Amino acid sequence: xxxxxxxxxxxxxxxxxxxxxxxxxxxxxxxxxxxxxxxxxxxxxxxxxxxxxxxxxxxxxxxxxxxxxxxxxxxxxxxxxxxxxxxxxxxxxxxxxxxxxxxxxxxxxxxxxxxxxxxxxxxxxxxxxxxxxxxxxxxxxxxxxxxxxxxxxxxxxxxxxxxxxxxxxxxxxxxxxxxxxxxxxxxxxxxxxxxxxxxxxxxxxxxxxxxxxxxxxxxxxxxxxxxxxxxxxxxxxxxxxxxxxxxxxxxxxxxxxxxxxxxxxxxxxxxxxxxxxxxxxxxxxxxxxxxxxxxxxxxxxxxxxxxxxxxxxxxxxxxxxxxxxxxxxxxxxxxxxxxxxxxxxxxxxxxxxxxxxxxxxxxxxxxxxxxxxxxxxxxxxxxxxxxxxxxxxxxxxxxxxxxxxxxxxxxxxxxxxxxxxxxxxxxxxxxxxxxxxxxxxxxxxxxxxxxxxxxxxxxxxxxxxxxxxxxxxxxxxxxxxxxxxxxxxxxxxxxxxxxxxxxxxxxxxxxxxxxxxxxxxxxxxxxxxxxxxxxxxxxxxxxxxxxxxxxxxxxxxxxxxxxxxxxxxxxxxxxxxxxxxxxxxxxxxxxxxxxxxxxxxxxxxxxxxx
Length: 610
Prior knowledge:
It is elongated, with a radius of gyration of 30 Å. The strands form seven sheets. Strands 2, 3, 12, 13, 15, 16, 18, 21 and 25 form a nine-stranded antiparallel beta sheet that branches. It is an alpha+beta fold.
């Protein structure tokens, strides 16, 4: 049987510069081709070049190549088939083969114990043994929401929160996982080296109630009753780590630890160009050669073919139905670690369409031949963004819907695939399919957050953070923390710096600045304000409810605000258990908030060294 070698040449007017990926189009022994400053070209070796060639016309384009002199059939390249398998699966392994064979003969392996750290959609509560933090945990539990806590003292956490709480305890000592909620993982936000990524697996939102510890100089009870009551004044001092370590450095460490999990406003780049940086993926051709066809494709980097003359990825090839084929695709090798995109809502492709219909296939298993979660999308001519929600992905195996497939798990993404095919699924055909050459420039693929975006990081700060050195302020009328900012290690100064870290992180956030915290019950009418001007008191229970409500409200996203109750300091607030106040709709308060108001505006008018 003779085999063939195609060379496709664009018109000489084209001046695009093409850079082939190493190993992607290496099926004929040519591993990495570079054509810099020359006309674009693409070579598809089917096995090895032959001396005898003949011309043939294909869709009004002339190609030169050797073809099989057999009526109605083209030569299938077994060598390219083997190299395709090799690229994606690595060298053949007899041990893996027999292991796979035994698994298929004996049936599925028994299910493994579930690690509580691996579940998705978890809200992480930091500072969970504090006055606000433990109440946040209670509110989340009462709403049947998944919660994990980050604390430093396991004994204290168990005593306050119960034995069944999912603990992520952090110290500098050797960490270990918590299975079945009994063996805690241990750690500390002031020590970045202890915040290992696996501790935050499945976390999609954070409520941060970590705060430097302040207590009366004269001492306090074991449960900090003097400090917690919030009404009577005691001369304060810092206990334990400094405000700089907790409020500023600790905040930076925490943000760095969770931002890959909770999601960024601009999304997460998986492939392509972002500014001057490039995120690469190992793409390889996966065409109908695996089923006897002769379609061909490759993936390249076109250094000048993108928008505004910039670089772009380029999925291109020739598709034909010869030998009962009809599809061409590119697929990534399995990621070294599954990509966790559980904080996001889908994948967005920036591409230059050609009016055809394509498929994106996402896999959540490292197995070679397995279900692919598939979304079909149409393109129009020109550059466009195509958003494919995870909810649109359907489980497909060999062009058939798998009705009993497991739900798509965005925390376990192992590979991506782009395909142009004659076939859709379940017997349907692609109405835009045409045999012949095709090109699909793809400049980037990213995970995205759908609109309206809700907060992913809710932080409990403090009213007064912008006031210590505000021009013209009467300190005698300010709370103790403002008057004693310097004596308390610049506590409010570093709280403000911590806030700034959140605002600059790219994580959708809410910053709650409560006035003086009390042990009174929730239920009083509230005042929300912005600009850092109000004083007063508010229940810790109320603050906890506000934090949890903020996670679900787009009106709270990227807002900073102060909050207090309408009850004066001099009046205690109580609730009749037989006639409790109605639950609040905190959205009505959030709707009044405006973007960009932090109280720093007054500082920026008169620059002050902080």
